[in-house]
Protein backbone atom coordinates (compact mmCIF):
# COMPACT_ATOMS: atom_id res chain seq x y z
CA UNK A 1 0.00 0.00 0.00
CA UNK A 2 1.07 3.57 -0.60
CA UNK A 3 -0.42 6.56 1.25
CA UNK A 4 -3.34 6.94 -1.14
CA UNK A 5 -4.20 3.24 -0.73
CA UNK A 6 -4.24 3.73 3.05
CA UNK A 7 -6.71 6.62 2.72
CA UNK A 8 -8.90 4.67 0.31
CA UNK A 9 -9.32 2.07 3.05
CA UNK A 10 -9.56 4.32 6.13
CA UNK A 11 -11.92 6.97 4.76
CA UNK A 12 -14.39 4.30 3.64
CA UNK A 13 -14.96 3.45 7.33
CA UNK A 14 -15.80 7.02 8.36
CA UNK A 15 -18.93 9.18 8.49
CA UNK A 16 -18.37 12.54 10.20
CA UNK A 17 -15.62 11.68 12.67
CA UNK A 18 -12.95 14.37 13.12
CA UNK A 19 -9.68 13.46 11.39
CA UNK A 20 -6.51 15.48 12.04
CA UNK A 21 -3.81 15.04 9.38
CA UNK A 22 -0.08 15.55 9.69
CA UNK A 23 1.53 18.01 7.31
CA UNK A 24 2.98 17.25 3.91
CA UNK A 25 1.79 14.60 1.49
CA UNK A 26 -0.40 12.91 4.11
CA UNK A 27 -3.04 15.64 4.04
CA UNK A 28 -2.77 15.96 0.27
CA UNK A 29 -3.36 12.25 -0.27
CA UNK A 30 -6.41 12.28 2.00
CA UNK A 31 -7.80 15.45 0.41
CA UNK A 32 -7.51 13.90 -3.03
CA UNK A 33 -9.20 10.65 -2.02
CA UNK A 34 -12.07 12.47 -0.31
CA UNK A 35 -12.32 16.01 1.01
CA UNK A 36 -14.38 16.24 4.23
CA UNK A 37 -15.41 19.16 6.43
CA UNK A 38 -14.39 17.12 9.47
CA UNK A 39 -10.89 16.63 8.02
CA UNK A 40 -8.30 19.04 9.38
CA UNK A 41 -5.23 19.35 7.15
CA UNK A 42 -2.19 20.66 9.01
CA UNK A 43 -0.31 22.70 6.43
CA UNK A 44 2.89 23.46 8.40
CA UNK A 45 3.77 22.63 12.01
CA UNK A 46 5.36 19.24 11.47
CA UNK A 47 4.85 16.89 14.42
CA UNK A 48 1.82 18.61 15.89
CA UNK A 49 -1.12 16.69 14.39
CA UNK A 50 -1.00 14.34 17.37
CA UNK A 51 -1.15 17.26 19.84
CA UNK A 52 -4.07 18.82 17.98
CA UNK A 53 -5.83 15.46 17.84
CA UNK A 54 -5.30 14.97 21.56
CA UNK A 55 -6.93 18.33 22.25
CA UNK A 56 -9.89 17.54 20.00
CA UNK A 57 -10.31 14.10 21.59
CA UNK A 58 -10.29 15.53 25.12
CA UNK A 59 -12.83 18.24 24.23
CA UNK A 60 -15.11 15.87 22.29
CA UNK A 61 -15.21 12.73 24.42
CA UNK A 62 -18.32 11.39 22.68
CA UNK A 63 -16.69 11.32 19.23
CA UNK A 64 -14.01 9.03 17.90
CA UNK A 65 -11.13 11.25 16.82
CA UNK A 66 -8.58 9.97 14.31
CA UNK A 67 -5.05 11.30 13.87
CA UNK A 68 -3.39 10.45 10.54
CA UNK A 69 0.31 10.83 11.25
CA UNK A 70 3.62 10.03 9.54
CA UNK A 71 6.81 8.37 10.80
CA UNK A 72 8.81 11.59 10.43
CA UNK A 73 6.14 13.54 12.25
CA UNK A 74 6.07 11.06 15.13
CA UNK A 75 9.86 11.05 15.41
CA UNK A 76 9.83 14.84 15.58
CA UNK A 77 7.32 14.98 18.45
CA UNK A 78 7.91 11.70 20.20
CA UNK A 79 7.06 13.17 23.60
CA UNK A 80 3.47 13.54 22.47
CA UNK A 81 3.14 9.74 22.55
CA UNK A 82 3.77 9.90 26.30
CA UNK A 83 1.34 12.82 26.63
CA UNK A 84 -1.40 10.88 24.84
CA UNK A 85 -0.76 7.71 26.84
CA UNK A 86 -0.88 9.68 30.10
CA UNK A 87 -4.01 11.65 29.20
CA UNK A 88 -5.50 8.39 27.89
CA UNK A 89 -8.45 9.65 25.82
CA UNK A 90 -10.53 6.54 25.18
CA UNK A 91 -11.81 8.03 21.91
CA UNK A 92 -8.47 8.62 20.13
CA UNK A 93 -7.23 6.43 17.26
CA UNK A 94 -3.68 7.35 16.26
CA UNK A 95 -2.76 5.99 12.83
CA UNK A 96 0.83 6.34 11.59
CA UNK A 97 1.65 5.89 7.91
CA UNK A 98 5.19 4.57 8.23
CA UNK A 99 6.99 4.65 4.88
CA UNK A 100 10.40 4.96 6.59
CA UNK A 101 11.13 8.24 4.78
CA UNK A 102 10.40 11.96 4.81
CA UNK A 103 8.59 11.50 1.56
CA UNK A 104 7.19 15.02 1.34
CA UNK A 105 10.62 16.60 1.18
CA UNK A 106 12.41 14.14 -1.12
CA UNK A 107 12.40 10.67 0.47
CA UNK A 108 15.19 11.22 2.98
CA UNK A 109 15.48 8.11 5.18
CA UNK A 110 13.90 8.37 8.62
CA UNK A 111 14.87 6.32 11.69
CA UNK A 112 11.71 4.24 11.68
CA UNK A 113 13.44 1.42 9.78
CA UNK A 114 15.53 0.95 12.93
CA UNK A 115 13.22 2.17 15.67
CA UNK A 116 9.91 0.33 16.09
CA UNK A 117 7.49 3.19 16.69
CA UNK A 118 4.73 0.79 17.73
CA UNK A 119 6.99 -0.46 20.53
CA UNK A 120 7.61 3.12 21.65
CA UNK A 121 3.85 3.67 21.77
CA UNK A 122 3.39 0.42 23.70
CA UNK A 123 6.08 1.41 26.19
CA UNK A 124 4.47 4.79 26.85
CA UNK A 125 1.23 3.02 27.74
CA UNK A 126 -1.16 3.10 24.77
CA UNK A 127 -3.54 0.27 25.74
CA UNK A 128 -3.99 -0.90 22.14
CA UNK A 129 -1.21 -1.16 19.59
CA UNK A 130 -1.05 -2.90 16.22
CA UNK A 131 1.29 -3.00 13.25
CA UNK A 132 -0.16 -3.82 9.83
CA UNK A 133 1.08 -3.91 6.26
CA UNK A 134 -1.76 -5.25 4.09
CA UNK A 135 -5.21 -3.87 3.25
CA UNK A 136 -6.96 -6.71 5.07
CA UNK A 137 -4.87 -6.24 8.21
CA UNK A 138 -5.45 -2.49 8.06
CA UNK A 139 -9.22 -2.82 7.72
CA UNK A 140 -9.47 -5.40 10.51
CA UNK A 141 -7.34 -3.41 12.94
CA UNK A 142 -8.95 -0.06 12.16
CA UNK A 143 -12.46 -1.48 12.54
CA UNK A 144 -11.47 -3.05 15.85
CA UNK A 145 -9.93 0.19 17.16
CA UNK A 146 -12.95 2.24 16.08
CA UNK A 147 -15.12 -0.07 18.17
CA UNK A 148 -12.99 -0.28 21.29
CA UNK A 149 -11.60 2.01 23.97
CA UNK A 150 -8.23 3.60 23.29
CA UNK A 151 -6.05 5.44 22.93
CA UNK A 152 -5.05 3.12 20.11
CA UNK A 153 -1.91 3.23 18.00
CA UNK A 154 -2.00 1.73 14.53
CA UNK A 155 1.29 1.60 12.64
CA UNK A 156 0.77 1.07 8.92
CA UNK A 157 3.89 0.01 7.04
CA UNK A 158 3.55 1.64 3.62
CA UNK A 159 5.46 1.99 0.35
CA UNK A 160 7.26 5.32 -0.15
CA UNK A 161 5.46 6.10 -3.37
CA UNK A 162 3.77 9.43 -4.09
CA UNK A 163 1.79 10.24 -7.20
CA UNK A 164 2.97 13.70 -8.19
CA UNK A 165 -0.36 14.24 -9.92
CA UNK A 166 -1.90 14.48 -6.44
CA UNK A 167 -2.79 18.12 -6.01
CA UNK A 168 -2.42 20.38 -3.01
CA UNK A 169 -5.18 21.12 -0.51
CA UNK A 170 -7.02 24.01 -2.13
CA UNK A 171 -8.62 25.50 1.02
CA UNK A 172 -6.90 28.25 2.96
CA UNK A 173 -5.82 27.46 6.53
CA UNK A 174 -8.65 29.72 7.79
CA UNK A 175 -11.24 27.81 5.74
CA UNK A 176 -9.87 24.48 6.95
CA UNK A 177 -10.10 25.63 10.56
CA UNK A 178 -13.57 27.19 10.30
CA UNK A 179 -15.26 24.27 8.64
CA UNK A 180 -13.49 21.77 10.89
CA UNK A 181 -14.65 23.59 14.04
CA UNK A 182 -18.18 23.78 12.71
CA UNK A 183 -18.20 20.07 11.85
CA UNK A 184 -16.69 19.05 15.17
CA UNK A 185 -19.03 21.18 17.28
CA UNK A 186 -22.15 20.01 15.51
C1 LIG B 1 9.42 22.03 11.61
C2 LIG B 1 9.37 21.52 10.21
N1 LIG B 1 10.45 20.89 9.69
C3 LIG B 1 10.44 20.42 8.44
C4 LIG B 1 9.33 20.59 7.65
C5 LIG B 1 9.34 20.10 6.21
N2 LIG B 1 8.58 18.87 6.08
C6 LIG B 1 7.28 18.91 5.70
S1 LIG B 1 6.60 17.38 5.62
C7 LIG B 1 8.05 16.66 6.05
C8 LIG B 1 8.18 15.17 6.12
C9 LIG B 1 7.17 14.47 7.01
O1 LIG B 1 7.53 13.12 7.11
P1 LIG B 1 6.49 12.00 7.45
O2 LIG B 1 5.74 12.36 8.66
O3 LIG B 1 7.22 10.70 7.49
O4 LIG B 1 5.45 12.02 6.24
P2 LIG B 1 5.74 11.67 4.68
O5 LIG B 1 6.31 12.91 4.09
O6 LIG B 1 6.68 10.51 4.63
O7 LIG B 1 4.39 11.35 4.12
C10 LIG B 1 9.05 17.61 6.27
C11 LIG B 1 10.45 17.29 6.63
C12 LIG B 1 8.22 21.26 8.22
N3 LIG B 1 7.10 21.45 7.54
N4 LIG B 1 8.28 21.72 9.50
MG1 LIG C 1 7.16 9.16 6.16
What would you note in describing this structure?
The protein is α/β, with parallel strands linked by helices and 186 residues long. It has a single domain, classed as Rossmann fold. The protein has 8 helices and 8 strands. It has helices at residues 3-11, 25-33, 49-59, 71-76, 79-87, 117-124, 135-146, 173-185; strands at residues 19-21, 39-41, 65-70, 92-98, 101-102, 108-109, 128-132, 152-157. Strands 2-1-3-4-8-7 form a 6-stranded parallel β-sheet, with helices on both faces. The protein has a two-stranded antiparallel ribbon with strand order 5-6. Helix 1 packs across helix 2 (25-33), helix 1 (3-11) crosses helix 7 (135-146) and helix 3 packs parallel to helix 5. The termini are far apart.
